Structures are given as C-alpha cells and as structure tokens.
Amino acid sequence: MNKPKPNHSRNTRGNGRILPMLLAVIAVLLIAIFVFILTNGKSSGTAGLDNLPNYTDVKGKIVVDGLKYEKQPHLGKEDARVKVIEFADFKCPACKNWTASYLDTFIKDYVDTGKVQFYFMNFAFIDRDSYLAASAGEAIHRQSNEKFWEYLHKLYANQGDESEIWATQKFILGFVKDNIEGIDYGQFEQDLKNHTYMYDVKEDFKIAGAYGVNGTPKFMVNGVLLPDSSYEGLSAAIEAALNK
C-alpha cells in the first residue's frame, strides 16, 4: 500500500513570501540609515556657516584711492622712513609660520630701532570664516591698537585647519572672551554679530587686489609689492629703501 506523500507546497509558498519581505525591510532600513547619515553629515558640516559673512552681502561702494595707512593696525614710529605692510589671512598657515618665525626678529631689527613703521592689512580670501576672523580683528583694533596685536598672536597660536570652517562666530566669541582682556567685550560681541566692520575687511581686500596681492603673506615696502615673502627679500628691500 503506497503512503501518501507529504504536501510541502504550502510551506514552500510561505517561505517564498517571507524572504522577499525580509529583503524589503532590510533595504528600507539601509536607505533610512543612509539618509540619516547624509543629512546629519550635511547638517554638521554646514553648522559652522551660520552667521558667517559674505562679501556679496557688504553694502556700500568701495573706491580704491590709496593704501589708507591711517586705518590699519600698526607698530612703530610715525616718522619712520620706511612703511611696510603685511597682507595676511588669519586662516593662512604660511602667515602663522611667518609670524612665529620672523615677526619678533623683524620688530627688534626694524620697528624698535625706528627704521620701519609696520602695518597689518587684511587679505581675507581663504573662506568665509577668514572674513569673520578679519572683522573680529577690525573690531578689536577700533578699541585698542595694542590689543589687536595680542589678538593676532594668540589667534595664530590657536589656528585651525585651513581646509575646515573653524573661525566661527561661536569660536571667536569664546576665544576673545577667554584670551583678550582689557576690551569692552559687550561692544566687541555686538560688532562681531552685526558684522560692523565687514565693509573695512572687504575694502582691504579690494585695495590689496588692486595693488597686485594674490595670496598671503605678501609684503609691501614704501608702496612697492615684493615678489616673494622671504625674510631675506623683505630685509633687502627695507635696506635699499633706507639707503636711498
């Protein structure tokens, strides 16, 4: 007598339905995770862009009609025979290195001896937080020329990665509060948040560009832009100016 064969058709059909459903659930979960990571990554990557200025937002016509020494942070005597301008960006690693390697020697050799009056001029071009760091420097300079140079030294010492947005409003407010004493912090905070001195930053940028500046650091001696940024080249140009 032949026994009836077991009927597996129902189980087979059930298994056939479960597998596609599981795959569909897994696919949905993977898509959800991917979207979350992508969205979160974009959010964290652009969070630093909040409240950052843009040159296109700066109102007012800018006319290039001279170097405007009187508006720039400076060191040295007014009657010095040689005027030297450094064009720099606070996000520029080469500017940081030049300051750390040569500025103290330069001041000792040329500024303290009365030979040179030294000026700092913004050429903020690397990114939008360059503009904000520059406008913070302008705000401090308007309160105290001396405190500007303290800001310059300490900000370079705390410089972030050139390829990243690090000089955000939050960072600069905290940095100045913790590191720069002797200024009206409330006024500084207001100036930074209101982009009070962004016109001046953009004006510096336009002036520098009109005189041929295309990178940082760059130096100008008595109105002549130097071809390189070496200390030897700067010293030679100053000595030549003094010997005229």
Automatic annotation (TrEMBL):
<keyword id="KW-0812">Transmembrane</keyword>
<keyword id="KW-0472">Membrane</keyword>
<keyword id="KW-0560">Oxidoreductase</keyword>
<feature type="transmembrane region" description="Helical">
    <location>
        <begin position="21"/>
        <end position="39"/>
    </location>
</feature>
<dbReference type="InterPro" id="IPR036249">
    <property type="entry name" value="Thioredoxin-like_sf"/>
</dbReference>
<protein>
    <submittedName>
        <fullName>DsbA family protein</fullName>
    </submittedName>
</protein>
<keyword id="KW-0732">Signal</keyword>
<dbReference type="InterPro" id="IPR012336">
    <property type="entry name" value="Thioredoxin-like_fold"/>
</dbReference>
<feature type="domain" description="Thioredoxin">
    <location>
        <begin position="43"/>
        <end position="243"/>
    </location>
</feature>
<comment type="similarity">
    <text>Belongs to the thioredoxin family. DsbA subfamily.</text>
</comment>
<keyword id="KW-1133">Transmembrane helix</keyword>
<dbReference type="Pfam" id="PF13462">
    <property type="entry name" value="Thioredoxin_4"/>
</dbReference>
<keyword id="KW-0676">Redox-active center</keyword>
<keyword id="KW-1015">Disulfide bond</keyword>
<dbReference type="InterPro" id="IPR013766">
    <property type="entry name" value="Thioredoxin_domain"/>
</dbReference>
